[in-house]
Amino acid sequence: MKKDIFYESRNLEFFPEIKSFWKIHISSFFNNKKEILKIVSNYCNKNKLSYKYIKKIKFYKASLSKDFAPSQVGKYITIYMSNIKVFEKTVTDLYLLLKKFKATEIFGDFQYKNSIIFYRYGSFFDSFVYDLKSENNNKILDLRQTYPNNIPNLKEVPFFHKIKPIKKIL
């Protein structure tokens, strides 16, 4: 993961060695973003999870504007997962910690229990290709869209996910 002017990355020593997997996005409103970041940061630090967040107010405001890429709107914090058990535990734990908060919806992700927690399977980098292959050995695209339908056919689907995966290949 690269360091840039838009995001502040933390716990890079725990960044997964894989190129794509499930990741969690946390949304916020301007008036609750600091409290949400404190809760999520404490959780990630305690559980040795790599994450990033939008660090400057001007970029945070831009990320909620109509001029921002629609598939990226509302993604204040991103947490990177390395295995399904940690992913499931993190989502359910954060839900208990964050369920009182309201925030903007993230259109390209699946929402967990009408909360500010969203998730998707995707690339951890700027690549639009997963590090997975289809049954025909084709690369699978990471289609970053404004509706969450781009889940590859995976063996590891979280227990709380109810939508069937579909395949998009190169």
From TrEMBL:
The organism's superkingdom is given as Bacteria
Q: Which residues form the RamC N-terminal domain?
A: 22-134
**Which one Pfam family would you cite for this protein?**
RamC_N
| Protein name stated in the entry | RamC N-terminal domain-containing protein
> Which organism's genome codes for this protein?
Mesomycoplasma neurolyticum
